[in-house]
Amino acid sequence: MLRWLRGFVLPTAACLSEDDYFRYQVLFEDLDRNGDGVVDIMELKEGLKNWSSSFGLNSEKDILQAGDTNHSAGLDFEEFVRYLQDHEKKMKLAFKSLDKNNDGKIEASDIVATVKSLGIHISEVQAKEILKSIDTDGTMTVDWDEWRDYFLLHPAKNINEIIHFWKRSTIIDIGESIAIPDEFTEQERQSGDWWKRLVAAGIGSAVARTCTAPFDRLKVMMQVHSLKTRRMRLMSVFEHLVKEGGIFSLWRGNGINVLKIAPETALKIGAYEQYKKWLSFEGSYTGVFERFIAGSLAGATAQTCIYPMEVIKTRLTVANTGEYSGIMDCCKKLLKQEGFRTFFKGHVPNLLGIVPYAGLDLAVYEFLKNYWLEQNAGDSVNPGIIILLGCSTLSHTCGQLVSFPLYLVRTRMQAEAPVGKETPTMIQLIQEICKKEGIRGFYRGITPNIIKLLPAVVIGCVVYERVKPFLGVT
Known about the structure:
This protein is mainly alpha-helical. It contains 21 helices and 4 strands. The strands form 2 sheets. Strands 1-2 form a two-stranded antiparallel sheet. It has a two-stranded antiparallel ribbon with strand order 3-4. Helix 3 (41-50) packs across helix 4 and helix 16 (288-318) crosses helix 18. The two termini are 34 Å apart.
């Protein structure tokens, strides 16, 4: 169909070898479904889908933007050839940067070494899973032809973006853990995608918290009032709350819970970057352990700064109808009646709970994900959203089981209003719970907390993915 173009292509295309020209021509004809000599964005999108591309959302926009030099909203054959030639040069440089011993082949050890040089540690097993996704002849090595064909329609420009793609593909993704915030490429920082992702994540978190707020209030009420009566059960607490304040009382305290997302996220990311710099001695890379420490310290820093909002949220959650007219009214009354120190009640057990929760969450998530990859990944580097949701839910659950006693103590200290005597200390409260309720007392309210985990994770992920296109994020 396009043989007649041979004599009219650009000079750069005319220098193509017969094999390269034929490859480009076949690919162009395959993408150009309507045969009009132009590949538009819908044809690119359909072609990437048929190509079984897992390069991410809106890859077709990146390709079109890079190749459409005449701004015609489509790629003609000349533009297509020029784009692929330029792209292959970039992929050649990326290939050479991975091929450490210059033998023309990429091995698992090459991937491990290159990724490590960028501050990310992966195992030999993870590197082999990456190789499997590219290797077509079963040698567990990747030559230039395999590399070129795999990344032919990948819009990445350099090795950093390729490694970022592997990270996004969840082979080495650590962004699900609360301990290690997701990291952004230099391109994302310059383009502004980083703050758009944060906004999308914040909206997803706000919607998830709002949808699961009734479970959160049930949890807090069971944590706080179980010392007064051991007969508090999920349905009885639910009936009591609805009877006392109506159905909308189940969302009491959710407003400030949503409001604290933005400052907490901003503080955590800023502190994380600073701690990471301090931990990378003399320019050395920051591995998973260093990032975990930086993430835990960042979480502790953010929690310390926004902790008064946590106390206000707890007081609003346990308050009776009409006790407070809003957030500011609650803040003024606490300050007047109990003083400034009340805004930091329970801060010690809160800090103590961060590391075990974050550590177990990260460890279980990585173990489950890597186990699935070793057993079932086949030729794919992407476990899929269902597997990731399952891993994330189970890891959060394990983290909750370990840290829940400390968070229960924190919540009771936050909710405690002194009446003629000092508020019990953390040790005194732990002794009181042990004496009156036993070990089970430390897990009051864990049922609604576990129930809300899966819907919260699912809602957050779905909203995040839905919001990103509206913000122009791929």
